[in-house]
Amino acid sequence: MKILRRSFFARDTDLVAQELLGKIIVREVDGHILKARIVETEAYLGINDPSSHAYGGMRVRNAPMYGQVGHAYVYFTYGMYYCLNFVSRNLKDPAGGVLIRAVEPLEGIEYMEQRRYKNTTHGLTNGPGKLTQALAITKELNTHDVTKKGVLFVIDAPEIAKKDIMISARIGISKAVDEPLRFYIKDNAWVSKK
Questions:
Q1: DSSP E strands, the chain
Q2: Of 97, 91, 31, which Cα lies nearest the Cα of 62?
Q3: Residue 81 half-sphere exposure, CB side, CA atoms within 13 Å?
Q4: What is the set of domains in the chain, with CATH numbers?
Q5: Contact 185, 163 (CB under 8 A)
Q6: N-to-C CA span, the chain
Q7: Are 182 and 106 in contact (CB under 8 A)?
Q8: Tens of pLDDT along 141-166?
């Protein structure tokens, strides 16, 4: 399969968030190849979205959201978890990104389980902090280009049918709480919350 091109990420953030569903994250770490299908995302629309890290202008922490599309934006939250985002936006917009909320493990599952302390249930990767633990994604991957083969990249996969894409409000935010910017694959067991 082909690695997603930069042009894939250079479109409206909410469209990219929907079309990332079904695509496959590849992570190479400690001699292991890990693969996981993206099953849940959230769009953060940039400077006009009060829930986006880009809201209020560029700062040191959120600078990657203003950078080149197709790069990772990894940040630490709640003092204990990393979250993985892909910088994605229509290039007329100054900032934007898609949070990867949940993935379905496909390859390297034993290694993921070790990283998640033998969690073999659907709790292995059904949340943004869980999936970064399982895939060994840390701040070192902040700004990493995911459109090139390396330690972290995203490969294409068949598009998910529109009828199988569910839309809801985003989770765990306090502003713009009703915006329908969370997308997930219907009936997928690895989605964080139904």
A1: 24-29, 32-44, 72-77, 81-87, 97-107, 152-155, 165-168, 182-185
A2: 97
A3: 16
A4: 6-185 (3.10.300.10)
A5: no
A6: 30
A7: no
A8: 999 999 999 999 999 999 999 999 99
Structure tokens at 8: 């894939």
Closest to 43 in 3D by CA, of 191, 190, 137, 184: 184
Round to whole Å and give the CA distance between 177 and 156. Answer: 31
d(CA 118, CA 16): 33
pTM of the model as a whole: 0.95
Beta-carbon contacts of 52 under 8 Å, excluding residues fewer than 6 positions away, are 44, 45, 46, 65, 95, 96, 97
What is the sign, positive or negative, of the torsion defined by CA atoms of 185, 187, 190, 194?
positive
Angle CA(160)–CA(148)–CA(39) in degrees, nearest 5?
A: 25
- The single-letter code of the amino acid at 85 is N
Residue pLDDT, tens place only, 51-107: 999 998 888 889 999 999 999 999 998 778 999 999 999 989 999 999 999 999 999
What's the burial of 30, exposed, middle or buried (CB within 10 Å: 0-12/13-18/19+)?
Answer: exposed
| Residue among 103, 129, 143, 107 nearest 29 (CA) | 107
Tokens 């765990």, located at residue = 172
